[in-house]
Amino acid sequence: METAYFNGKFLPKDEIKISPDDRGFLFADGVYEVIRWYEGFFYDTNSHVTRLKRSLRELRINWPDADSFPTIATELIKVNKLENQPAMVYLQVTRGAARRTHYFPTPEVSPTSYAYAWSFEPESQLKETGIKVMLKEDIRWSRCDIKSVALLPNTMSFQEARENGLNECIFVRNGIITEGSHSNIFFVIDGTLFTHPESNDVLSGVTRKNILRIAQESGIKIREEALQENRIRFIQEAFITNTSLEVTPVIELGGNTLGDGIPGKVTRIIRDKFAIEIKALKG
Ligand code: PDD
Question: pTM (2 decimals)?
Answer without folding.
Answer: 0.97
